[in-house]
Amino acid sequence: MLDLNEILSQPAGQVAGMAILFAVIGTIVGITATVRIGAMSKKFRELLKAPSGVNLEELLTEHMEERRDLQEHVRGLELRIVDLEAKMRTSKRHLGLVKYDAFEDVGGSQSFAMALYDDLGNGALVTSIVGRMDCRVYAKPLLKLSSERSLSQEEERAIKEATSEAPKTILS
Fold first, then answer.
1. Are residues 144 and 156 in the same domain?
2. Are residues 39 and 59 in the same domain?
3. For residues 115 and 91, is the Cβ–Cβ distance under 8 A?
4. Main-chain dihedrals φ then ψ at residue 102, nearest 5 degrees
5. Is residue 171 part of a domain?
6. Across-strand partners of 94?
7. Closest CA to 98 of 163, 171, 162
8. CB 116 within 8 A of CB 94
C-alpha cells in the first residue's frame, strides 16, 4: 500500500490533498452557517408570535389597514375644514354695539347702534333711537364696511367696535 507521504509528494496528490482540505473546511463552514441560520430562523418565528398567540404579521397588516382608514378620515376632515372656512368668511360674526342717549331728556342709554357683518364687511347696521314718546328702528345695508346712506357717529363707532380686537365697550 502507498504511504500517505508518497501520495502527497506527487503533484496530483498535492492537488487532491488540498481539495480534500478545502472540502472539509467548506463542510465545517456550511454546517456552522446552517446552525446559525436555524437559530436565527427560530428567533424570527418567536418574534412573529405575540404572547397571546397572535401573529405579528397579522398585527402589522391590521395596523396598516387602520392607518389607511385614518388617513382617509383625515382627508375627509380636511375637506370639511376647507368648506367650513369658506362658510366662515360669509358668516355674520363681527358684532359691534354702541349704546347712547339720543336725547337729553331720555336717560339710561336706551338707544343703540349695532353693526353685524362678515369677514368681507358685508352685513347690516341696526339703529334704535328711543325718545320719551316713541322708539324708531332703522336698518342700513353694509357693503365692504360702508353704506350708501350716511352714517351717524354711533353707527361708525359700532363698525369700529366690531372690527376691534379690544374688549367691547358699549356705553358712550
1. yes
2. no
3. no
4. -75, -30
5. no
6. 117
7. 171
8. yes
